[in-house]
Amino acid sequence: MSTMADYERMAKAITFVVERADEQPSLAQIAEHVHLSPWHFQRLFSRWVGVTPKRFLQTVTLERSKPLLLEPGSLLDVSQELGLSSGSRLYDHYVTLEAVTPGEHRSRGQGLNIVYGTHLTPFGRIFVAATARGICRAAFLDYVPLEQTLADLKAHWPLAEVSEDASVTAPLASQMFVPSGTEHKPLSLHVSGSNFQVMVWRALLRIPPGAVVSYSGLAAGLGRPTASRAVASAVAANPVAFVIPCHRVIQKSGALGGYRWGPARKQTMYWWERVRAQTEETG
What we know:
- The chain is α/β, with parallel strands linked by helices.
- The protein is built from twelve helices and eight strands.
- It has a four-stranded mixed sheet, sandwiched between helices. The chain has a two-stranded parallel ribbon with strand order 1-6.
- The protein starts with a helix and ends with a helix.
- The model is unreliable at 68-76 and 78-93 (pLDDT under 50).
């Protein structure tokens, strides 16, 4: 199991490599930057990222020679350009999203039981809350304290019964970070939002791991080319970190841009997914 210290070291290492890729830093230099021996760093990095530091540096070097931003267009076109089929490897094949009905929203959670727990993940400690129908909230805790995250959940569902039961949320948290190509039961989400927000969240699920799209490209793919600002607001309101992959939306310039749970985490997620996706592509 990854620890918070592992995530912080790997995020620091990835940032170092990305920023200095032109200098082609050695294994010893990267290891020294995160205060580990080369042997220990190589072992930890390979386990955490899924490739060796050398392979990661090669991937970053290659990717920096390409435009990061995919051309605007429908999300299906984006997937086809990457050689993906709409029915097999797209991310929404592994996640089912069910929206709360207007009646359920008006009830303010009356009769709803929500359980929550906190768990370590490859990207730090995460808060996960779920109903009987799926995950309704997930948030990394180093940016917003547990007390505030829990208060926000209860404010959204003031009449719901909210209780802590990490034994229920632990398998959900674990499944959130299983590679999308792994055989497993689809992960269920049970979210509350406006019709427009839910439409945007569903669209995010169609962006494959390792791929990115701009806010304007996402808006165009939804048939709302003038709604980039509204799309950005819906992306920012994402209630389920990582699974609804708002970290795959970037600025039109190609810059990764901000992220609700920290820009360093967004960059780390992008490269973690990108090197794994490239490994799958090359077999």
